[in-house]
Amino acid sequence: MVGTGTVQLALKKSKATDLRATLVGRDGSAFGLSGSEPATVPVGEYRLSTVTAAFDDPQGEQNWSFIFSDNGGKGDPDGTALARTSRSRSTRSALSIWG
Fold first, then answer.
1. What is d(CA 59, CA 76) in angstroms, rounded to the nearest whole number?
2. Cβ(38)–Cβ(57) under 8 Å?
3. Domains contained in the chain, number
4. pLDDT tier, 14 (very low <50, low <70, confident <90, very high otherwise)
5. Residue 75: pLDDT band by 50, 70, 90 thresholds?
6. 3-state SS, residue 88
7. pLDDT value at 10 more than 90
8. What whole-number distance in Å separates Cα of residue 88 and Cα of residue 95?
9. Angle at the Cα of 86 (from 73 to 83), degrees rounded to 5?
10. What is the b/e burial string over 63-88, where b = at least 16 CB atoms within 10 angstroms of the residue's CB?
11. Residue 33 CB: number of other CB atoms within 10 A?
12. Which domain holds residue 17?
């Protein structure tokens, strides 16, 4: 595949004070995503390897932080294919499931 695509992190119902993720390609390439900043990556098939998110505590206490990670790519892969498309806010228009 030739070309690049744009990916961007987004949450539907909540606002994270910090949001980061790592995409890992089938070829072993890795790309870091930060906040809601769009990132340009080569067209290819990717899976989310890690996601970290922090949220303000509604009662003003210490922030809540969460870390999610895959199992190192073991087992059946579940990822997304990034196709060359026009820029869109909807990830469904630019991503499709593979696995």
1. 41
2. no
3. 1
4. confident
5. low
6. coil
7. no
8. 11
9. 30
10. eeeeeeebeeeeeeeebbbbeeeeee
11. 19
12. 4-98
